[in-house]
Amino acid sequence: MHESLATTKPCGQLVHIPGLPPMYDWEFYPQDVGIKTDVILAAEVRMSKFINEADGLLTNSSIAYDGHECLHSISQWIARRGDRKTFHLGPMMPFEPGAHRFSQSAIEAELASMPSSEGMQTVQFLDQALEAHGPRSVVYISFGTEHWPKSMDQVQVLLTTLTQRRIPFLFTYAFPGATLPDVMLAEFSHLGLFVRYGPQQTILGHPACGWFLTHGGMNGSIEALSQGIPLIGWPFAVDQPVNIARLTRVLDIGFELVEVRSGDYGLQPLHYRDQAPTGTFSALEKELAEVFDTMLGEEGKKKRANAEKLRDEMARSWLEGGAAWKEFESFLDFWIRG
């Protein structure tokens, strides 16, 4: 099993996963990021083997985000051998009790861990944007610590499209290999802030933050949704295309950028679209313009309403009788009290 799966290559097979829309197998590899698919598959085999040998499973998944179908399927899969139990304890967020706000102590701890100038700059920028542009006006941009666009031309197109619409933005670039030319900083700093490291919970919890343009990592996506912030997905690899597919095509709380895709698999047809992405800068420019214009209109309002509904459901998860509270009680009964 290990050898056969580790040498499998995407071939356009339609994949059905509980909780996700149907996807071709090559949709799981949206960009050529220099990681061979067999390396990823081999790692997934090792993780599967580890789970198979475990006595049970604790996850930070939540019914609010992942849905009953997905979590029930995971629980059934774990229980197929030895009647093992699974407990879904998400979301694990530092909320104020009974609310969706991040606790003040969590925000203070996050800011204290930041380089003082960047933390202070970030808060000042958000406060000024709130006063100048209003609530939910800022687009927060982050590709995380492990990914960065293949071409600076893509970044240039992104920032140009934002500034043409006078949309303020906060751009963090924590990937070690990420650089932004001085000429780019000078051209766009009148409307945005560039910091290498940003206090993410502080940003997402600020009333000025309106949208999150993200690679689609699970932690950042859940943090954004916990604050009712809709997303714009720019996925690179691993779990990101799956997360973005659920966010955009199942939960309807965001947009997916497909013209950022690259490589042999990334430029193949997507199951939900009539045509394959081209990956050209002109196509990306057109797509970004359409997404930002739609974001500012009625469709954007609908996606925000969906995100806020999910936020409220997540906030109730740890109240007495909530989904996570019940799961934790079951865990205590099974492993501790029983």
UniProtKB/TrEMBL annotation:
Molecular function per GO: UDP-glycosyltransferase activity
Keyword hit for ATP-binding: no
Record keywords, A-Z: Transferase
Record InterPro entries: UDP_glucos_trans
Pfam families: UDPGT
Record's keyword annotation contains Glycosyltransferase: no
SUPFAM superfamilies xrefs: UDP-Glycosyltransferase/glycogen phosphorylase
Name of the protein: UDP-glycosyltransferases domain-containing protein
Organism, scientific name: Aspergillus tanneri
